[in-house]
Amino acid sequence: MNQDPAPASTPSTATHRQEPVPELAKHGAPEGRSLALAIGDRRRGRPTPSLGDPVFHISDLDIWYADHQAVRDVTLTIGRRQITAMIGPSGCGKSTVIRCLNRMNDLIPGARVTGKVVYQGENLYDADVDPIEVRRRIGMVFQKPNPFPKSIYDNIAYGPRVNGMQGNLDDLVEEALTGAALWEEVKDKLKASALALSGGQQQRLCIARAIAVRPEVILMDEPCSALDPIATARIEDLMAELASEFTIVIVTHNMQQAGRISDYTAFFTADVDDKGVRHGRLVEYDTTEKIFENPADPRTEDYITGRFG
Ligand SMILES: Nc1ncnc2c1ncn2[C@@H]1O[C@H](COP(=O)(O)OP(=O)(O)OP(=O)(O)O)[C@@H](O)[C@H]1O
């Protein structure tokens, strides 16, 4: 296994200002290297992947939007302080599944879920579960950075204030921004608008905002797809650091990214039924090394090697 840092290969779609590029040399590995060589590049120093301490047990999960069954029969276990990547072609239900992990689908009219999402021993879909508390404990970072139109400080302080968290707010803001590797860049302009930050900085601010309320899990739905390769590399480094404290689940279209950062990978695809309707399903779930180097299902191999999707 090649130990050089891999290039972050997400194409640049950033509409924000470019970040300073001090890490260009560090991350600017040659283009065109084999996918397999990048596996685990950002996992170095992390423990061996393990499901021995599960956080989520998802079983028989079916998800509908009105009368369209978008996802069929998903069963998988997610381990504590693991980085779990969800990959697969567009429309196979990755975002739909990740949104079930903190009941974000509740906010979509017509969305309906059956089956179980057991989190720390409790089914998140039981009638007496408070979805607001679920979302505090299981935070989410979205594809497009979405800071509030407020100061950097207030973006971070908002959640702790609303949640009535005790302690010194200044310390909490510093801790969250440090945890998201943003403190040094913003410590002298905390009262400036968050909207003046670059795209990569905004995404790290959103990660800081997520960790400020002390969640146990961070869900990330394509967190780098609007970022340039340098900002992407910084977020990947950050994820590797955060994984010592948090459980991370990430949806990504970038297979190299899944290979570089994750411990486990779930590969989804969409089956087409006899009426031509597409239903997402989980094809294979295993350690990232296994999925990328020796997948059990030919559909996984076809996708990983670029023959499909
Ligand atoms: N809010 C929604 N309302 C109705 N249908 C939806 C909604 N969100 C997703 N779907 C449908 O559910 C299916 C799965 O979509 P989903 O976005 O979860 O897939 P995905 O694998 O994340 O796709 P992509 O990689 O393109 O983001 C698709 O058929 C999609 O049209």
TrEMBL record:
<dbReference type="InterPro" id="IPR027417">
    <property type="entry name" value="P-loop_NTPase"/>
</dbReference>
<dbReference type="InterPro" id="IPR003593">
    <property type="entry name" value="AAA+_ATPase"/>
</dbReference>
<dbReference type="InterPro" id="IPR017871">
    <property type="entry name" value="ABC_transporter-like_CS"/>
</dbReference>
<dbReference type="InterPro" id="IPR003439">
    <property type="entry name" value="ABC_transporter-like_ATP-bd"/>
</dbReference>
<feature type="compositionally biased region" description="Polar residues">
    <location>
        <begin position="1"/>
        <end position="15"/>
    </location>
</feature>
<dbReference type="InterPro" id="IPR005670">
    <property type="entry name" value="PstB-like"/>
</dbReference>
<dbReference type="GO" id="GO:0005524">
    <property type="term" value="F:ATP binding"/>
</dbReference>
<dbReference type="Pfam" id="PF00005">
    <property type="entry name" value="ABC_tran"/>
</dbReference>
<feature type="domain" description="ABC transporter">
    <location>
        <begin position="56"/>
        <end position="295"/>
    </location>
</feature>
<protein>
    <submittedName>
        <fullName>Phosphate ABC transporter ATP-binding protein PstB</fullName>
    </submittedName>
</protein>
<feature type="compositionally biased region" description="Basic and acidic residues">
    <location>
        <begin position="16"/>
        <end position="30"/>
    </location>
</feature>
<feature type="region of interest" description="Disordered">
    <location>
        <begin position="1"/>
        <end position="31"/>
    </location>
</feature>
<keyword id="KW-0067">ATP-binding</keyword>
<keyword id="KW-0813">Transport</keyword>
<keyword id="KW-0547">Nucleotide-binding</keyword>
<keyword id="KW-1278">Translocase</keyword>
